[in-house]
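How a chain folds remains the central question behind the approach discussed here. For one protein, we set the task of working out the structure tokens from the amino acid sequence alone. The sequence in question and its structure tokens are set out directly beneath this paragraph.

_____
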Amino acid sequence: MMNRDAYVKKLKDQIDQWNAESKKWEAKAKEAQATMKGEYEKQLSTLHSRRDEAMYQMKLLQGASTDAWQDMMKGTDQALKSMQEAFNRARSHFDKK
């Protein structure tokens, strides 16, 4: 099992990757026609909400005691899974347009 610092770094790196991709999609949404703009904005809103939850979980994890962080990892893993699902849905919308 990885230690807390390695886990937090992995989580931060993943969030940074999602943020970079999200910025590309935001630019694409700004250039989109009105009919697609609403769908893009909806996908980005969901993505940002999930990202914020993952970041919140990461901060909780960073501040957790040594004994508690492994228990908290379960909630963080669920937030990551939810974020990955939202990211994949957004990617499918942005890549096909």
